[in-house]
């Protein structure tokens, strides 16, 4: 930034989706000096200081165009109910792609590991084959192909950032979320899925935000998939040990061998999650070294993530 440029005169960065990832990203962008708009359907929720809230339905072209107006960079962090994803996410993509094509804004897409499908435990890199067989995995792969095709065709400037399972302050609906930390703090039941001795990658939500913000600032990364900064995979049992050290008590772990309702995960969610349960019956190892080398970013150590997450949940429970 030049000496005559202030954050107020810099082009806006617009974040679509005000869930944990979008909210964390908005805060990260403000800390980096960008004017930020945070978009969801209502536009009236809490937001980090310096963030403009904006209401729009970005599953429609009109809503997406209104949301991205005036933005230099748009971040697609929209998600919907698990049972609605296959139906709704393609509509969101169509509307958002059309909007950035019309506006000229760059598009940074938050993505998942779903397109890789079952790997047999092989380490996932950006060069791993996309071989998903699940409905949601195939859907994600098809969307990603369309994003990259739009970039290759010169219709839009697009980059994808893939994350492993979220963990961290503010994360509720995750295998390391509201079904784990409240029980750990109160002596209640703690959910675990599948084989808890298999290595499983988790991405700190703050590293999701930092990785996406970096992709937004570094257009030389456009036109491809990047794995967002993620700490080395460890087993769920090892994470439980980290949590126990933080809370000062042993955990009362309930291991589900198959997808069935538990705590915040109801029948509807678990019925949809069943096809993704392979993620807990084989190693899920994500390698983010390419992103780390290219952009000089580093993941938060997992023990620090666990400590921060325990502290966030303790404060939440004390309210």
Automatic annotation (TrEMBL):
Domain of life: Bacteria
InterPro entries to which the protein is assigned, alphabetical: Epimerase_deHydtase, NAD(P)-bd_dom_sf, NAD(P)-dependent_oxidoreduct
Molecular function terms from GO: aldehyde dehydrogenase (NAD+) activity
Pfam families referenced in this protein's UniProt entry, alphabetically: Epimerase (PF01370)
Segments forming a coiled coil: none
Residue span, NAD-dependent epimerase/dehydratase domain: 16-221
One GO CC term on file: cytoplasm
Alphabetized PANTHER family for the sequence: NAD(P)-BINDING DOMAIN-CONTAINING PROTEIN-RELATED, PROTEIN YEEZ
The protein, known as: NAD-dependent epimerase/dehydratase family protein
Source organism of this protein record: Streptomyces griseicoloratus
